Amino acid sequence: MLIKEYRVINNCTCNEYQVAQLYSVAEASKAETSGGEGVEVIKNEPYDDGKGGKGQYTYKIYHLSSKVPAIIRALAPSGALELYEEAWNAYPHCKTGMNHNGYMKENFKLITESMHIDESRGEVENALNLSKDLIEKRQVVIIDVANDPIEAKDYRKDEDPTLFHSEKTGRGPLKGDWIKTVTPVMTCYKLVTVEFKWFGFQTKIEAFIHDTMRSLFTKFHRQVFCWTDKWFGMTMDDIRALEDKTKLDLDEVIFMIFCFAQ
């Protein structure tokens, strides 16, 4: 088991980030669904009695055969590369659990627990109220969306925080030591626990998954900032309407792919 706490600093308020995150998730889901793979939204509905009180529950299936290491593709049986995600979003606290209900069952789990804190620059040492044991096990990773390197294949000029300037808010570009000076500011504290029980591969795969998570967090939050003028001013009602439309669009894409594959 490998546990890391990622701290992602953002140039927005905590209330703004709630909208920005959901908008960006919907847009990223559409971009990742093509060629018979991607995100299938099964449920997206409110709940009243979960952790943190009221919130939004989502259940998704990720079809990922082209997105995992070649070593796993070679060893996994056909149809095994689907992951199932449940999420409970009681913002500012969120929890996501991902597992494999088929081939690997209880031998794989990926749990992300997040807390979002306003006017924070990544300095809160126990944002998620962790036990002393967990604090000793975790590794803290600060993510700087402007300065951290990304893979060349993921770079887009229009998603570069060092170049983007928001017409609606006047924010950006993010230059130099922006984390210490920018306002408004908030931090996403994300505790990620990875367990991959596969003899001979556990350490390597757990490290790979964490490397992938860091890359995903960096890329996603670069998009969140550079899409400011798209989500700024949206309400939660606007977001729920967008999510409903996105689910219909994704369902249609997956259905058409299935039909043509027959």
From TrEMBL:
The terms describing its cellular component in GO are: cell periphery; cytoplasm
- Could you tell me which residue ranges the Phosphatidylinositol transfer protein N-terminal domain spans? 1-247
| Cited InterPro entries | PI_transfer, PI_transfer_N, START-like_dom_sf
Which Gene Ontology molecular-function terms are recorded?
Answer: phosphatidylcholine binding; phosphatidylcholine transporter activity; phosphatidylinositol binding; phosphatidylinositol transfer activity
Protein name, entry field = Phosphatidylinositol transfer protein N-terminal domain-containing protein
What is the originating organism of this protein?
A: Gigaspora rosea
Give the classification, highest ranks: Eukaryota, Fungi, Fungi incertae sedis, Mucoromycota, Glomeromycotina
